Amino acid sequence: MPPLDTPLWLIGLAGLFGYLVGSIPAGVLVARAFGLGDLRKIGSGNIGATNVLRTGNKAAAALTLLLDAGKGVLAVLLAAAVIGPDAAQAAGLGAFLGHLFPVFLGLAGGKGVATFLGVTLALSPAVGIATCASWLAVAGYTRFSSAGALGAAALAPLWAYAWGAFHLIAVLAVMALLIFWTHRANISRLLAGTEPKIGRKE
Fold first, then answer.
1. Angle formed by the axes of helices 58-82 and 113-123, nearest 10°
2. CB 48 within 8 A of CB 110
3. Largest alpha-carbon pair distance within the chain?
4. Distance of alpha carbon 156 from alpha carbon 170, whole angstroms
5. For residue 200, what are the CA distances in angstroms to 21, 27, 56?
6. Is residue 134 a part of any domain in this protein?
7. Domain carrying residue 160
8. Is 197 a member of any domain?
9. Which of 29, 30, 64, 183, CA to CA, is 20 to 30 A from 37?
10. Residue 198 counted as domain residue
11. For each of the chain's 202 residues, which pLDDT tens digit applies?
């Protein structure tokens, strides 16, 4: 963690701001705007870009990915500019939690991968790029989006260590553990050989 130079109430406010930003259900809004129906009733029911891709609309999936990542970037950069680096981490974690447990959808959200990548990029571009590259490498090799997510999450704290961003290790480890938790069903399907590959409709 960075030095806590900011009053705790301001750090809490940054976390709340991040949570509200992260709670915006980009995938649901994009699917509706593209006339794809209720995303929660399509494919896996997840509100993220991978499930949007299962509709066959690549543009909608790409926009969802950018918006979900953008939530994390926006929360971190605004908190860093207005308050400081300690608040930026709180806002980033808040945005991630908001995507997982959005207040606007009764706390039933997505798996957090895109928002996690956005937060990581905003906190440290070097660590974020390495983490995104990890996702691309694992997902590209296995053709499983979930495997890419798990690989990127597991490697993110290690990339932070490698780049000397020791203050980010704790927050990245917390998000990584939550990503493994949100992907618990995917892990079971991967082990059973029944996980759908990228782009496959369910």
1. 40
2. yes
3. 49
4. 11
5. 30, 18, 9
6. yes
7. 8-192
8. no
9. 183
10. no
11. 555 667 787 888 999 999 999 999 888 888 788 777 777 777 676 777 777 777 767 888 889 889 999 999 999 999 999 988 889 999 999 999 999 999 988 888 788 899 999 999 999 999 999 999 999 999 889 888 889 999 999 999 999 999 999 999 999 999 999 999 999 988 999 998 888 776 554 4
